[in-house]
Amino acid sequence: MKTGLALLGCGTVGTAVAEMLLAEKELLQERSGQSLELKHILVRNRRRKRAVKVPSRLWTTNPSDIWADPTVDVVVELIGGLEPARTLALAALRAGKHLVTANKHLLAVHGAELFAAAMKARRAVCFEASCGGAIPIIMALTRGLVANDIQRVIGIVNGTCNYILTEMSASQRTYADALAEAQAAGYAEADPTLDVNGTDSAHKLAILAALAFGAKVSFSHIEVSGIHGLQDQDLKYGRELGYVCKLLAIAEKSDHGISLRVHPTFLDQKQLLANVNGAFNAISVSGHAAGQTIYYGRGAGPRPTASAVIADIVEASMGTAAMVFAGLPLLTRRKSMPIVPTRDILSRNYLRMTALDVPGVMHHITGILGQQGISIAAVVQHESSVGQYVPLVVITHEARDGAVTDAVKKIDRLRCIRGHTVRIRIMEP
Amino acid sequence: MKTGLALLGCGTVGTAVAEMLLAEKELLQERSGQSLELKHILVRNRRRKRAVKVPSRLWTTNPSDIWADPTVDVVVELIGGLEPARTLALAALRAGKHLVTANKHLLAVHGAELFAAAMKARRAVCFEASCGGAIPIIMALTRGLVANDIQRVIGIVNGTCNYILTEMSASQRTYADALAEAQAAGYAEADPTLDVNGTDSAHKLAILAALAFGAKVSFSHIEVSGIHGLQDQDLKYGRELGYVCKLLAIAEKSDHGISLRVHPTFLDQKQLLANVNGAFNAISVSGHAAGQTIYYGRGAGPRPTASAVIADIVEASMGTAAMVFAGLPLLTRRKSMPIVPTRDILSRNYLRMTALDVPGVMHHITGILGQQGISIAAVVQHESSVGQYVPLVVITHEARDGAVTDAVKKIDRLRCIRGHTVRIRIMEP
Question: Which of A156, A268, A283, A293 should one mutate to test binding to chain B, selecting the residue with the greatest count of B CBs within 10 A?
Fold first, then answer.
């Protein structure tokens, strides 16, 4: 069967998709059974020099050319960001085209609107490439694990952060050096803000959690902290204690509702997720029947992303995407579920204070922790001279997150403490 | 939509599937949008006491009841083995039912026949549960990675073997002790032959390789060696060299064709697959666009298997399974591809000889290896007394597999060598 395609945008991913569709048409037909015909590529500027060689009739600056072309079945949005991506995506659906998108930001913020438009038009929204790059995690979560009551999704879903953390750990670099290295290697943008502050991970978590729980999840429900404040000494202390630091996106379901958070986390170094290194991503999904499953692969990059985009195009072309979209309540008939604030979650913590080594410091700190009902599992303080500021590391037993937050605030107000306490949650296997 | 189901067989997996369909009907409907109605369970003996409580009208000993029932849309074969599973599966397809099966043995041997019958009847064969238990690897390979020229599939696909190898490594037990432990823990059958000799892994590899390459793969193309000959001292020497031993099922494509083999393999301990422990499975798939992706989870057990079986039932029920089956050439229009014998594969090797410590031994051995064009990367021989038999470990550089086989035969004929040389292939990252 022939399927007509239009691309919106032709950046690095768009270029890779166009190249694969044109140069590897035969391979794609042989493997998918579908004949995928690229009909239009929407760009802002037709004159700009492009890395990909395509027949010049394909370039257009007018989206109406695409909506009006009855031979176009699938529109692939690869512009990124909210606008004009949102307006164009809605227009494509209204024009009766299936929508394939890699745009996690758009889905995290306007997913419900897009899905409603698709249902109305009896078309599909496919978004395998929005999370985990080449990893077919959307398919696994919605279909492979469809029989499961999903209890937990834990993801390393930002390759930039994982690359930086791996470099900081393996080569004992500072955050700034590791970031510079990531930028030089092409794993971090010139402005890495949305990656390192956890926003990108939170966009992906909003998508994954909604699918996992069949729940209405808003991006604003997610409590986010990034890796930009991390110091190499904390990773070093963690290592001494057998921990590896990863930026995790965590969605959990309990009897009280769902909790959603992104934060740097210490993992036991023997855990599989702790061994996911460099720019790779991995997502762990725990279901009541399947138990834990993990999906690992390249979370970014033009060709890995193109792999997922084309998988979506094939599903749209075969006709399965529309059936899934109409059939699965996880996509379009989501429930409202209460959000459990991070304050109410239980976890162990790594706390590093910079304390003046004078008599009574430990007494003050343990007093504050005790008042909040937090018990101490371990303390690391290397020998020093009285009267100097020294790092003091405390590992807590499982405690209510909010109690630890409050305790840290009080500790930071002590006269014998300098600066802010560094806090990293610890996740047990 | 209502879908009528019939189960063939009610062993441990059948019981888990029936239980989920009955006790978790609401959850399944909520997540899948499908109403799955269990109509019949075919058993040999209606009178036998069963672990699952189902209305007694469901039990039948007559398959014709199922074929003749127009409300049955999907037949789930969970008998296992070749007959009567094959005959019943073919009859189900001819009666116009979709077939869901977890039977890797049946698929590895009679897959082509079943698929042809399904094409003729315009029905689907779904077999997510045949490989990797709960892991949605069939979906990932055929659909998530559909845009990829797959170069390599490497799997830890037998939980029994992986449990035994993990126990041997972690607790430094002998093979016999670890097997007894696996049997006590329910991870090995009373007769574990088909697991430990690699046959079960080879069945799964036949299925995975056919899908990965879209190739006609016969089970007889696979060269298989199991873990039953492994000695704890070899795992110990491997550990000293930084290696972990896993039973790997390997399918690779080169310009010359495809190679298919199952054998114990040393992996660098830092590799992710080396950290897959206990009864878990993991499958690594490398594609030209996606790069490496890995899928991890429980490879066996009633509920993980039921998770995959029900995912298949839902795809059949939604109507997507039939579209995929008709659409994807990977399933039903496979190419003949030349098979590259293992002899022609290049790999590094661990060789352990039991050598008499007399002058000239090393000279003999290195002479034989040199004649075969095999160069030595490392030698480990601990100090001993002249005239005693001692273990001598040689790590080779990359060499043609057949050359190493021939060299080992010659070495074993030396008068200064006792017994057989132990050989374990080494796989580099």
Answer: A293
